[in-house]
Amino acid sequence: MDIASISSRLFWLVRNSMSGAAAGLHLPATVFTRFSDAVAARDAIDQTPPLLDHPQGLCRLRDDVIVDGVGPGRVNWIHPSGDVRVELARHPGSAQFYPVAAIRRAVAPRPRFEHEVVPVGLREANLVVERLHRRLGKVQGHKFAVGLRRVADQELDGVAVCARPVARHLDDGLTAEVRRVAVDPAVTNGCTKLLSAIAKAASAMGYRRLVTYTAEGEGGASLYAAGWDPIGRSAGGHWGSAGRPRKAGPEEGRKVVWAKVLRGEERER
User: What does pTM read for this prediction?
Assistant: First the structure.
């Protein structure tokens, strides 16, 4: 006698003891070989309507579940005793009963990461910069750019733009400048992720050093976390001259200079 037969006989014994002798129920003479056969015999005398929620909170009617050893399916009937009837995904239209111990709630697969680093073009990066950057606007030119894209809906939540250094004495062909980093404040460690990604990309392209600038009032926590070092302060000044006057912009003034050594040099502290 297998476990299914024992469970079916126990059910009839408990049912008979609870309902009393007036119910006229007796132990069946048939030995059931499958759990579904035992439940089908019970349903012949039990007209209890199905429940919307499982008594143990296991699942709800029409929930997606997984039957251990069988596969995924959908609940289409819940008995007050706790038995669950499942329509298997690989057998549409099927209606098999399974014991509670074999049912697991199906959890929708979640991505390992909420964001992924992707390459982006200058036009797309500038749109994100104008939307998310606190002070500065779009960049005129660039070498490359990377973005932080949400896996769920493929929307960009941040970008980092790398270009030639603005300072002429740094433009040696092996140094690049991170001109913009703009990230949605709701993204945890977004700036650090982009700075690390842009450093890896620049190193793979053969650059030896990266530089960037921050305003004197900014702390630079993301730069520290990404392995950057402050190496001094810029002289500041005004871009305009007598022969070519220009309006003062948000990029002018003294700034903190940061550098990240990618290869061939010692880190400056």
Answer: 0.56
How does DSSP assign 176-244, residue by residue? EEEEEEEE-TTSTTHHHHHHHHHHHHHHHTT--EEEEEEETT---HHHHHTT-EEEEE-----S--SSS
Residues 11, 140, single domain; the answer is: no
Residues 25, 222: Cα–Cα separation, whole Å: 74
Q: Are residues 14 and 131 in the same domain?
A: no
Positive or negative torsion for Cα 62, 114, 124, 201 = negative
Which residues in the chain land under pLDDT 70?
A: 1-48, 105-113, 237-241, 246-252, 265-269
Considering the domain boundaries, does residue 266 fall inside one? no
| Claim to verify: residue 53 and residue 105 sit in the same structural domain | yes
CATH number of the domain residue 99 falls in: 2.30.30.60
- 235-250 pLDDT, tens per residue? 776 666 677 776 666 6
